[in-house]
């Protein structure tokens, strides 16, 4: 296996050496980790290192994707455009449960590898290692949610699709500014206090600073789990949640949404008493997170509707249609909208 890997890497290096000068034309790009990477002037094949990058590539330039990090399910494919929804699975290079390897990367023959999300030294080290082993440029993009417009423009420029990037970035900027102005007159102590429960029992959540909770900050709501400290995702106890007594509970899990409203353990929470337990839609990608990518932009509109109902003077269905048409390149039917919003508790 080591010898086979050596041959693959050697073959890739020889290809680069033998390539015509025009095909090797490159420019320097300084990525979010401060790494200077030589990237091709013309990029036609792109490999996503993880799920957020996969979503970003799909919304910007699906024709350049070599595949999905994870093959979409049948339910997800319904909300993705043909023929891109049927691209092959590549596996992931980053994060928990990484499944890709150097042989896969070389076999896909990408012009560039893109990772979007955290930019800590662990990810920079991985990028350096994969780039050294394959000879393929690997860039890191800061995927922090508040800078979504900048992320869209930056990657669109790398891929040579500036017009598309500007269209999506302008929409993202307008959406964030609209939301900020809409709730500007609501005092800080009147903003909703939110608990986000992951998993079937709802006892995994995001602490202060978690990338999974960034949307709450953008819409001006408070993450009650921030009281537990900072970090990423972590498990908490029911006693902690009872002590925080959130105004609103959010989840992605239909099982947890159903159980929390009937389980006497949760009955005394303000959110449960007032029926403010909402499940974020998840097709084709999670609205709140899962993955924590540009797919979260629709949550800015959705959360405004459920967290600030007195300010929800807009048609959520039409806003959802617009987002799916622009970002996912699909035209939603009334039936699809019904299913997307069925368990979101928005009417």
TrEMBL record:
- Report the Gene3D superfamilies cross-referenced here: 1.20.58.2180, Nitrogenase molybdenum iron protein domain
Instruction: Name the source's superkingdom.
Output: Bacteria
The protein's UniProt keywords, in alphabetical order, are: Signal
Per the UniProt entry, the signal peptide is 1-25
Q: Which InterPro entries match?
A: ABC_Transporter_SBP, ABC_transptr_periplasmic_BD
Q: Residue limits of the Fe/B12 periplasmic-binding domain?
A: 45-311
**Name of the protein in question:** Iron complex transport system substrate-binding protein
Entry's CDD domains?
Answer: HemV-2
